[in-house]
Fold this sequence. Notes:
- Pfam families: NBD_C (PF17042), SBD_N (PF07005).
- Residues 249-402 form the Four-carbon acid sugar kinase nucleotide binding domain.
- It catalyses: 3-dehydro-D-erythronate + ATP = 3-dehydro-4-O-phospho-D-erythronate + ADP + H(+); 3-dehydro-L-erythronate + ATP = 3-dehydro-4-O-phospho-L-erythronate + ADP + H(+).
- Belongs to the four-carbon acid sugar kinase family.
- The protein has 412 residues and is of the alpha/beta class.
- It folds into 2 domains: 3-230, Rossmann fold, CATH 3.40.50; 248-409, Molybdenum Cofactor Biosythetic Enzyme, Chain A (3-Layer(aba) Sandwich), CATH 3.40.980.
- It is built from 15 helices and 18 strands.
- The protein has helices spanning 10-22, 56-72, 94-105, 154-159, 171-175, 179-188, 201-210, 227-230, 257-268, 278-282, 287-295, 309-319, 321-341, 352-361, 401-409, and strands at 3-7, 27-31, 44-48, 77-81, 111-114, 122-125, 128-131, 134-135, 166-169, 193-196, 216-219, 248-252, 273-275, 302-304, 346-350, 366-374, 377-382, 388-392.
- It has a 15-stranded mixed β-sheet, with helices on both faces. A 3-stranded antiparallel β-sheet has the order 6-7-8, with no helix packed on it.
- Strand 7 and strand 8 (134-135) form a beta hairpin.
- It is globular.
Amino acid sequence: MILGAIGDDFTGSSDLGLTLAQGGMRTVQYVGVPDKPAAADVDAGIIALKTRSIPAAEAVRQSLDALHWLQDQGCKQIIFKYCSTFDSTPEGNIGPVIEALIDALETDAPVIVCPAFPATGRTVYQGHLFVQDRLLSESGMENHPLTPMTDPDLRRVLALQTKRPIGHLPLAALHAGLARKTLLDEAEAGRQIIVCDAVSNSDLLVLGEAARGFPLVTGGSGIGLGLPSVLQANAKDKSSWSGVSGPALALSGSCSTATRNQIAAHKAAGGAQRKVEVDEIIEGLRPEDLLDWAKDNKPLPLIYSSDDPQAVKAAQSRFGQARCAEAVEGFFAALASQAIDRGFTRLISAGGETSGAVVGAIDATALAIGPMIDPGVPALKLEGRKVALALKSGNFGSEDFFFKAAQVLEGR
Length: 412
């Protein structure tokens, strides 16, 4: 294994896996830290954790466990992958995990921080994160139920999570051919953790080259664009992937604007839908009843709890944020597990937390990366089982995502 990655959620990890596979690396995504060595033909291994919203100390522990396994596989470089919307609060764990990885790797090399993913509209300019033409804090992410993002300046966000000085690689320096020099100068000046501007895929390729030989790189999945060629992976994707036939089921717990638009488009296209309320779940709604409904409803039944920010806040005020999140995730986990038992072979999940619950419930341990459904969203297949998955971050995907995903998972 040449390249190792630690992802803080499942959808983001598969997103990175797609980037690396398209760059020519034989890529496998592991669900949690494996208990056995990787296969000999794996170029890039991604350990998908579920650490995005957990306390920093536990996120650090799990991330270090992942690092040690990747080091045992011989990785030359480590990626710490977080969301391209940098989901984190002042109590968040991105900064603490970066610090812990730096210490464990015993490196004084520059550490890139760049969540940019231009293909989905995420760019960094003057240290600020944008979603399309909006600052992060005006993009809808300020309403995220778990990690509301109210400050788009990544330097300020990180400064609240780490006592280490934060550096900056401006776009002008990157475009002037000074990326590596600026990174080294910032680290030499004591600013080892460096927020990097990037507004295009070309910028990310430059960052990949600039990070040559750096033990640790951090960012969104876009940061993986420039690494395969630097690490001398083969010129074409060596992975093999074929679709899976059989019944499909879509699940959505994401409350993002993009997902809610996709739900509306699914309905407009004639898709079968059933909305579940948090109140119903807490009062004992049975997953098996919904699966009975799903079996009898085509095309592509969709079960969702997604709602607008006001409704989410109202539910949280009644039951508490933690109880709402646990109830919804637990319900979708039960749905996924029972769906597989009932013969569903294609599962489509919208939302990072929802997808993490789904993957954990169906006992997935390793996922082969397949073709792209939409930018940042690959088709996945469980190794050794005829089950295909699409795991979508909330804000990703075109409006026709649900039907498109079902077709790609089937091999069409």
